[in-house]
Amino acid sequence: MHCAVIGAGIIGLSIGWELARSGYQVTVIDPAPATGATHAAAGMLAAVTEFHYQERELLHLSVPAAAAWPQWAQAVETASGRSTGFEACGTLVVAADAADRADLSVLAEAQRAVGLGIGELGTAAAREIEPLLAPRLAGAFHAPADARTDPRRTAEALVAALESEPGVAFYRQRATAVVQGERGPTVQTVSADGELAEIEADEVIVATGTGRIGEHGAPGEGLTGLPAILRLPVRPVFGDVLRLRPTATAPRPAGSTVRALVSGQRVYILPRRDGEVIVGATEREDDQAGVSVEGVHRLLRDALRVMPALAHYELVELTARARPSTPDHLPLLGRIGPGLIAATGFHRHGVLLSVAAAAAVRTLLAPAPEATAPRSPPTILDPTHLASFDPWRFS
Ligand SMILES: Cc1cc2nc3c(=O)[nH]c(=O)nc-3n(C[C@H](O)[C@H](O)[C@H](O)COP(=O)(O)OP(=O)(O)OC[C@H]3O[C@@H](n4cnc5c(N)ncnc54)[C@H](O)[C@@H]3O)c2cc1C
């Protein structure tokens, strides 16, 4: 069985590799792999601290995804010979003032009520975990099960893993249309120099994120032939994110991801092993694809309030990208037509949920005739829960 995956962000790459290692023939189509939201993402795998009120359905994907990530990262690393940057690091959540602490306390209660592991620490205990925390904080919580990965390295590893599989083809071209024929769907593509191609497949998986292509987030020229229900509910929610590097004398964070509420505004500080520190992220619906001055100002102000030592770091990168978001903040994951599956709308959680997206698409497909039992990994999802993510729910 031949599957064509349109879009090679973290979602399309994960689906492509899951299908390839399960014995399907796979073609991945993207003119600029992993340059969309995946390029900006911090990589928090935070099923606990990303849980927010009214996002209960997401737990059906986020909890199994978080549990599967360590094994998934290991498998990608073995197949590719590259590091993904996965780290089991835990998350500290800190409050700048008393009102922030009250808000975080109510949220932690809601997280515990759905079975997620988060407990309140004193600020002194938090400082033992992360000595660079500011001396004047009002409260601290700890979610030890949260983890993180490096989305850029994970995407590179997935590309290498895919390219090492027999039966995988990579088209660095833009898909322009999906045409339904008598024998199944055909994807029409165009290369940068105008060369046209047609790819026949048994199944087409649409994993195009917001549908934008390229480093600067310019809108793509659109993919025709898809049901309108897929395009209508996906909107871009832009995020600014900063990358810092320590100067020779600057102290380095101990290693936990730190999330903070500062006068009601969220900020996170994510230290990587190589010294890089990610500070993120804004959420803007202003259609400004470039980096926002106000966003950068706010992120730096709040990050320094929580970890003053970052003032001695070098600011090495400012990035903005669009999260593919839906009205209910749940993904569009399911069949949208004969031989056509949607896998987009992963909003703030696409890196975490990439593993679940891959497992979901595999359960939606008929077993690959070529699949042999040992190569076919066990599924992590209860398929009955996929109804919550049905792309037709907005129609
Ligand atoms: C600032 C920021 C921080 C984030 N932090 C986190 C985090 O810590 N943890 C987390 O889990 N999530 C995080 N996210 C969310 C996460 O990045 C997204 O949910 C995820 O990247 C979505 O992946 P995707 O593959 O659907 O989309 P994308 O990564 O945008 O990929 C879509 C791909 O489709 C391609 N494409 C589009 N149209 C076509 C076409 N016509 N033909 C061929 N290819 C096409 C594009 O070139 C692109 O490569 C963050 C997002 C942002 C913006």
CATH superfamily of the largest domain: FAD/NAD(P)-binding domain
Amino- and carboxy-terminal Cα gap: 30 Å
- Helix/strand order, N-terminal first: EHEHEHEHEHEEHEEEEEHEEEEHEEEH
Q: Which class do the helix and strand fractions yield? A: alpha/beta
| CATH class categorisation of the largest domain | Alpha Beta
Summed over residues and divided by their number, the pLDDT gives a mean of 92
For the report, how would you describe the main beta sheet? 8 strands, mixed
Gross geometry: globular
Task: Give the second-level CATH assignment, the architecture of the largest domain.
Answer: 3-Layer(bba) Sandwich
Q: Which fold name fills CATH's third level, the topology of the largest domain?
A: FAD/NAD(P)-binding domain
Estimated share of beta-strand residues: 25-35%
Give the strand tally: 19
Name the quaternary structure: single chain
Uncertain runs are none
Ligand roster: flavin-adenine dinucleotide
In short:
By secondary structure, the protein is of the alpha/beta class. 27% of the residues lie in helices and 27% in strands.
Task: Describe the 3D structure.
27% of the residues lie in helices and 27% in strands. It has an 8-stranded mixed beta sheet, sandwiched between helices. Strands 8-2-1-12-19-18 form a 6-stranded mixed beta sheet, covered by helices on one side. The chain is α/β, with parallel strands linked by helices and 395 residues long. The protein starts with a strand and ends in a 31-residue tail after the last helix. The longest helix is centred in the N-terminal third of the chain and has 22 residues. The chain folds into 2 domains: 232 residues, FAD/NAD(P)-binding domain, CATH 3.50.50; 145 residues, D-Amino Acid Oxidase, Chain A, domain 2. The protein is built from 9 helices and 19 strands. The chain is globular and about 65 Å long. Bound molecules: flavin-adenine dinucleotide (FAD). Flavin-adenine dinucleotide (FAD) binds next to α1, α2, β9, β13 and β17.
